[in-house]
Design goal:
Layout lengths: L3 H16 L2 E4 L4 H11 L5 H9 L1 E5 L22 H19 L14 H12 L5 E5 L2 E4 L9 E6 L2 E6 L2 H9 L14
Antiparallel strand pairs: 1-2, 3-4, 4-5, 5-6
Helix pairs in contact: 1-3, 1-6
Length: about 190
């Protein structure tokens, strides 16, 4: 793998390994990556693909074993039939469907059909045009797309609760897993 996209993914993998708080298995092979892409109908972005080829994160000590954990951890890419992985992959589009069932209609989708069956058909048709989001960790996602890279990592909890969690995959690793030394008196005791 060469190119700036792969470089960002390799840098993210290096930073994660350097922190020594995530269990990392040998990276996914090209065959394994291709199998995942076929199974789920997307292509990894170049940085995401390089990240997973460099090493497959499987467990984040202190996060994945936290008693208040309320979401998935690392995607189980080596077990593509796992129900948890399917739920994690489908989460972003499920968020759209849930918002629509509660009265939301996305801008740019034209008039919302009043008939539920027509609305569902239109939703299905238009969701195919929406960029696929691929899980990185928990509710953190990167857009799919071979020959793309450098996109921000988004935290998607619901359609109206989406925030940027990292400027790119390498920055995301720092934001999610590196504990910064907080030097602000008083306020640092409340972190």
């Amino acid at each position: 793998m060469i190119g700036s996209g792969a470089a960002v993914g390799l840098e993210a993998a290096r930073r994660l390994a350097q922190l020594e708080l995530v269990q990392i298995e040998p990276g996914l092979t090209d065959t394994e990556l291709d199998d995942v892409e076929r199974t789920f109908g997307f292509e990894f972005a170049d940085d995401h693909r390089a990240f997973l080829a460099a090493g497959l994160p499987t467990w984040a000590t202190g996060l994945d074993d936290h008693p208040d954990k309320v979401s998935w951890g690392w995607p189980t890419w080596r077990n593509p039939d796992a129900e948890d992985l399917r739920q994690q992959v489908e989460w972003p589009t499920d968020c759209v469907r849930h918002a629509i069932s509660n009265g939301h209609w996305p801008n740019g989708w034209g008039r919302r059909p009043s008939d539920p069956e027509r609305m569902e058909a239109k939703t299905q048709r238009l969701l195919v045009t929406v960029p696929r989001m691929v899980p990185v960790y928990a509710h953190r996602y990167l857009p799919a797309g071979r020959t793309t890279s450098g996109h921000p990592v988004l935290s998607i909890h619901t359609l109206d609760d989406i925030i940027v969690y990292g400027l790119d995959l390498a920055d995301y690793v720092d934001q999610e897993f590196r504990n910064p030394k907080v030097t602000v008196s008083f306020w640092s005791t409340y972190l």
